[in-house]
């Protein structure tokens, strides 16, 4: 009986509190892309990536390993190797240094099998896209490439009022997009370059 009373009281408390009555969390910290030079873009390893690590002449310590959610990697002989935000080549060199304690002159090759990448490098599309999702950035990606990936706009989308959010000099800046002009009217001048970390928000049209 007491348990039921407590449960009812808790439910009444939760129902009685509107979102306006609750404290507001601070805004998220802008996370700039780790890509330093877009003209020389290289894939960066991220949490969840599946890595095929091959140590030449040592198949017993080679294998497939997954980068942990904290961005660290553990292999057969070494633990807690920072992996997130590094190129596969850079990670291979780091593993060679760590493995040198156990293997003479190790030569390591890192091959990414499942591409996830750091959040800072993903392009995220939310709102009135047919398939809103996070996309792995690919070299020379444009707005048109992104929209093909998410299946275009829904019938309720206000494509010409869409916004792109990009971190520039540590600050989030917003830019207008003309998606309807691009996708429905074929105005190719409305196509723009997309950069790692961009967020695209597509609102619903007001009828």
TrEMBL record:
Residues 39-112 form the Polysaccharide export protein N-terminal domain. Pfam families: Poly_export, SLBB. It comes from the Bacteria. GO terms for molecular function: polysaccharide transmembrane transporter activity. Gene3D superfamilies: Outer membrane lipoprotein wza domain like, wza like domain. InterPro entries: PEP-CTERM_polysacc_export, Poly_export, Poly_export_N, Soluble_ligand-bd. Residues 123-171 form the Soluble ligand binding domain. Keywords: Signal. The keyword Signal applies. The keyword Cell division does not apply. NCBIfam families: pepcterm_export. This is Sugar ABC transporter substrate-binding protein. It comes from Photobacterium jeanii. The lineage of its organism: Bacteria, Pseudomonadati, Pseudomonadota, Gammaproteobacteria, Vibrionales.
